[in-house]
Design goal:
Number of strands: 7
CATH topology: Rossmann fold
Shape: globular
Strand content: 25-35%
Order of helices and strands: EHEHEHEHEHEE
Distance between the termini: 17 Å
CATH class: Alpha Beta
CATH architecture: 3-Layer(aba) Sandwich
Number of domains: 1
Length: 160
């Protein structure tokens, strides 16, 4: 294949990750970037244009789960980056996994949640959701995975 051709980002925010992903794509590659708000992505669009990468980024505004579920059933991705509302991480993971090619990579950000995931006193919805996902991923036989303790934690899953 020579590189990633179809990529997905859930949680575009100000577009920095989208810019990095798009820069790594071949000229004919495409990134579907899911964002909840145009307000946060307006500046991103300017940077994407300035970098000459806007044609590789297909920004989809709205709830990411709705966006994912609206994609044709035949849509397949080579790479996905999940960094959005933590309470939906498991839902995003499941929707993304069924759209990944064999050998495709899913990266999930913030899986250590500033260390909160190991502190039993912290019981916020976000923290519980990340704990639950981490525990599930460790036993999910559909993937090979590794958690990197870099910054706020990054899990890399490779679909079998």
């Amino acid at each position: 294949m020579g590189g990633w051709y179809q990529a997905l980002e859930i949680g575009t925010f100000r577009g920095y990750s989208a810019l990095a992903i798009a820069a790594g794509l071949p000229e004919d590659g495409k990134l579907v970037a899911c964002a909840a708000s145009a307000e946060w992505t307006n500046a991103a669009r300017l940077y994407w244009c300035e970098a000459g990468l806007a044609s590789r980024i297909d920004l989809r505004l709205g709830p990411a789960l709705e966006t994912l579920r609206s994609l044709p059933a035949t849509t397949r991705f080579d790479f996905a980056f999940i960094d959005a509302d933590k309470t939906n991480y498991r839902n995003y993971y499941e929707e993304v996994l069924k759209r990944m090619r064999a050998g495709g990579l899913i990266l999930i950000d913030n899986v250590l949640w500033n260390g909160a995931v190991i502190d039993p006193k912290i019981q916020t919805d976000d923290t519980r959701a990340i704990r639950t996902l981490n525990d599930f991923l460790a036993t999910d036989d559909r993937i090979d995975m590794v958690m990197l303790p870099v910054s706020d934690g990054l899990t890399i899953c490779r679909k079998g």
